[in-house]
Amino acid sequence: MKRVLVLLLALSSPAHADDDLAAQGEALAKSGDYSRAIDAFKAADKQKPTTRNACMIGLAYLRREAWPQAELFLAECKERASAADPAPDWLATSEAQLAEKLAAANVAAVAIEVAPVANARVTVSSFALDESFTAPRTLHLAQGRQTVEVHAEGYVPATETIVISDKEPKKIQITLKPVGVTEPLPIIAEPPPASNAPYVVMGAGAAVGLGALAYGLAVVHPMQTRLAETRNREIYDKERSRFLPRRNLTFVAGGVAVATIVTGAILKYTVFARETPVQVGLVPTDGGGLVTFAFDR
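The chain above was modelled as a monomer; its predicted structure follows.
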């Protein structure tokens, strides 16, 4: 008979454990030890979730002046309330006190929305690890950096960080991605083709050099030969006055050709982000000409 009685006591004691924890929480709260009271109420609620437990956690947070957590649990209390498990009579008074405190505190109303699931669990970095809620929900969060983390079965966890610097309302929208769905690979643009500017410049220099060579062979060299062969002073002077500008032009064109080819070789080792086609121009000058190159970087 004694063994049966002990067994009955052992089986019946867990049913009252939550009541004992709740009573312990109330005693701690009355003594002003709100942190330990919250732990006791949470332990009681873990064994048996009730409307009163949620309300007591919210009230303890309200007394501890942790406004966002108080808001969360008082809202949980109101959501749990039913005819079988009604909310305490003092809930409305506590909600009014909380609204007054939130209006004066440095907090901002943050609307949190999660898609595409409705049963995702949301946690906030400033809350305890065991304090989570479902979205959509609006909470008043303290100023600073707040990180929101979302978990849902079958979906990849997601996080979103928001910086709250004033009391203006904010919104966080988080879209969860199903597990196993891979992200498309980023499209990597091919690098632009190598610049043709150096080759155009060197080609222009080569063209000028070939032109100077052809002009020298076709015009300057025959005139020089005639000057070397003439014995008539008058003809020599006349031919020489025609010969010298042409010879100088050939020298200038040859110098321009060499300088242009060297410039092209230097440009070949210059990094161009993007260039337009090189524009080559020839500006006639007295006794010669000037080759110009224009391009954009």
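The longest strand covers residues 107-115.
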